Amino acid sequence: MGKCDGRCTLLVICSLQLVAALQRQVFDFLGYQWAPILANFLHIMAVILGMFGTVQFRFRYLIFYAVWLVLWVGWNSFIICFYLEVGNLSQDRDFLMTFNTSLHRSWWMEHGPGCLVTPVQDSRMAPDDHHVITVSGCLLDYQYIEVLSSAIQVLLTLFGFVYACYVSKVFQDDEDSFDFIGGFDSYGYQPPQKSSHLQLQPLYTAG
């Protein structure tokens, strides 16, 4: 019963991770954030693999999923520190998120709750095919929205890691106990054999 509860809980956590990652992927696409897009894609693949391993009792898939979650915590911790400008990190370098291929920033910068976007006309600061804007009135700045999104990812990841380790341990114990009793190769079990010889009996008739 404990194994079933653990598997069901892990599947629920993986489902929440998948929904959160897909939601994040959509907004990163809208903001042309190529580095997060790549990381989100790898995370989605790892979560799907973890769900498959949970359903199919695949111990190695769960180990891979758990290892990826450690890397995922590291990535989201970097995102949090980046937007909070911890240490030498600065939001002035946020073009790193686009692999320096465009000047786009987080989609939430212009579309956050309550944000009022005002274009600046005839600005010499704008490169070709770009325009300068001012954003005001936001109820929550875009960097805090990004931090909140990463914090949710970290929280789900911690729960997923704990249950992935628990379920994989249960799977491993089941495999060890199965090997201990000999599985289907036990010498005490002999499958029925079909005889290939037919014994002929004489047929008597009344004369």
TrEMBL record:
GO terms for cellular component: plasma membrane. Pfam families: NKAIN (PF05640). It comes from the Eukaryota. The chain crosses the membrane at residues 34-55, 62-86, 147-166. Keywords: Cell membrane, Glycoprotein, Membrane, Transmembrane, Transmembrane helix. GO terms for biological process: regulation of sodium ion transport. It is found in: Cell membrane. It is a multi-pass membrane protein. Interacts with atp1b1 C-terminus. PANTHER family: SODIUM_POTASSIUM-TRANSPORTING ATPASE SUBUNIT BETA-1-INTERACTING PROTEIN 1, T-CELL LYMPHOMA BREAKPOINT-ASSOCIATED TARGET 1-RELATED. Belongs to the NKAIN family. This is Sodium/potassium-transporting ATPase subunit beta-1-interacting protein. It comes from Cottoperca gobio (Frogmouth). The gene is nkain1.
